[in-house]
TrEMBL record:
This is Purine phosphoribosyltransferase. It holds the Pfam family Pribosyltran. Residues 14-159 form the Phosphoribosyltransferase domain. The keyword Ligase does not apply. InterPro entries: PRTase-like (IPR029057), PRTase_dom (IPR000836). SUPFAM superfamilies: PRTase-like. Coiled coil: none annotated. Keywords: Glycosyltransferase, Transferase. One of its GO terms (molecular function) is glycosyltransferase activity. It comes from Kutzneria albida DSM 43870.
Length: 173
């Protein structure tokens, strides 16, 4: 097919199914609850973190969810030099004094999580990170991790190609 969604049959990959995601997000929520951390709000890193934050929001009974759009990956193991926050960036006033749980699907290099965590750190009472997967090379060591891996991960929301191919716009670039 020749697109970034091709999967080599010879490479070892971590495969997360929808069913396993349900288990993973529930176990991640138990880690947060068992630790006694009670976030005032969940900050999801779009797009993969939207699923994690939604599941954690229900499991931890947190209705206050915010979204940060960060562009870093452009394909399988292809990324920009640095992650970039895309608008709209949350208003720091909305975060002031809050206990924030940052949710994402994976801490790969950790650059995206570091960008978001550092953005929050100046404004919030406390910030912690929760991810489904953390890779050994991540520069951010998350407080809550479901599994550690050094493999590429097939997530159920991103392994199949889009239904339509959109033209790149200013917001997508």
């Amino acid at each position: 097919m020749g697109n970034s969604y091709d999967v080599s049959m010879t490479e070892e990959r971590e495969v997360l199914t929808w069913d396993l995601f349900g288990t993973a997000s529930r176990e991640l929520a138990h880690q947060v609850a068992d630790d006694g951390f009670e976030p005032d709000l969940l900050l999801s890193i779009a797009r993969g973190g939207l699923f994690v934050a939604g599941a954690l929001g229900y499991a931890l009974d947190v209705k206050n969810l915010h979204v940060m759009n960060v562009e870093f990956y452009t394909g399988v193991d292809q990324r920009l030099d640095l992650p970039v926050m895309l608008p709209p960036v949350p208003n720091a006033v909305d975060l002031t004094g809050a206990k924030v749980l940052v949710a994402d699907d994976v801490a790969d290099t950790g650059a995206t999580l570091k960008l978001v965590r550092d953005f929050c750190a100046e404004h919030v009472a406390e910030v912690r990170c929760a991810v489904i997967y953390e890779k050994p090379r991540s520069e951010v060591k998350c407080e809550y991790v479901w599994r550690h891996t050094d493999q590429w991960i097939n997530f159920p929301w991103s392994t199949q190609p889009p239904v339509v191919q959109r033209k790149v716009t200013v917001l997508d670039a």
